[in-house]
Amino acid sequence: MKIFIHLKKLVPYIDEAFEAFYNTMLNDLKLSVFFENDEQIKNLILKQKEFFSNSLSIPSDNLKTMYIKLGEYHYDIRIPYVDFIKGTDILEEHFLLNSQKFEKPVELMEEIFDYFKIMKSYTAKGYLNRMLSEDKRDIESFFEQTTSDQETYLPKAIVLEKIQWLKSLLNSIENDEDFDFNKNEGIFNQWSKEVQFFSLEKRNFFEDLEKRIIINTQNLFYFLKKEEYLEILPLYSSLLNIYKLTLMMNNALTLEYANKVIEEMKIDSLTKLFRKDIFEEILQKELAFAKRDNKYNLSIAYLDLDNFKSINDNFGHYTGDKVLEKLGECINNDIRGSDIAFRIGGDEFAIIFKGATKQQAKNVCKKIKVDFTSFEFIFNEEITFSVGLSIGISEFLLEGKEDMQKLLESVDKKLYEAKNRGKNQICL
To answer: Among 313, 347, 403, 412, which one carries the catalytic annotation?
Structure first.
């Protein structure tokens, strides 16, 4: 257990370090949306300065626990890890520069490097903890869906084996246990026997995905043993994305069914969001899950373009379509991986925020709003204009015994309120 004996020398420089940190954060459009007002920022600065100051005299093992919790907190408020690292780099650079003011700065510099290595690595562990929790829930839901599906096109035995393999993998990562990935490696090879109708190119693509799963798994557990969570986080994300892709492909046993899936995806061709057809169906399923698990948060947002009719009237429907297309792009870029977005009307949109409070949903909506409303549209190469966006957000409350209709009425009222407040607003 290491104790940092020189770090207290940094205390006089904490104020200016955090001032530099917040100035950088607030000047970043995408990061500034996480801050509500000046009072909130002042309180955050005070808390973080106090936290940092206290942490300078804490043994390294206790420090690890603190930063795991800090990582979990930042994940819960949906701050991307890459942005968290940007902030820590600002602080680290500031303290390294000030270390040069002391005699024999080498020992202090070494402790600064070690301290921030712990900060970055174990906040990554906190992010990983939360990702594991969400992914385990999603996999369990997929498992339930697969076991209840009676269609003959699904190779259940193979799919269920793969899901079980993944559940075992996630448990091993979560508990820091060894994982014998070779033990069940054969489940991947079985799949190739079921896809003979695929072209050689498609079969090779699928087999390549599964080889990458094995390689990523090996690499992940290598770094897990060394507790190098900065290396683990991107490996884990890549592994889960590839694995989910293979599970999706498992559902396409025939070319006919693959085409059917594409047809039934019901994607709006203009915005690349889901169409209204399946909005209520998906929402109903999420509500059912939220009612079973009182720790599961669920929020919904309605988004509506301001004065969209006048855009069509003044600039034509082609320009109006470009506005809709841009909003769809912003929504797709800014929502979390677990969120589901829909175009439910001409200029009306909805987002289901799985596992999110209304405040967390608001943070995402703020990013969408900033990206969209700051964009300048061009008409006839000479006229530029921007478009406002009104947003209403509601959260499902288990104690209120809400049904879908009540939730939709609630979010509709919030959107109406945003319009009445002068438009281009977000109302909770």
So the answer is: 347
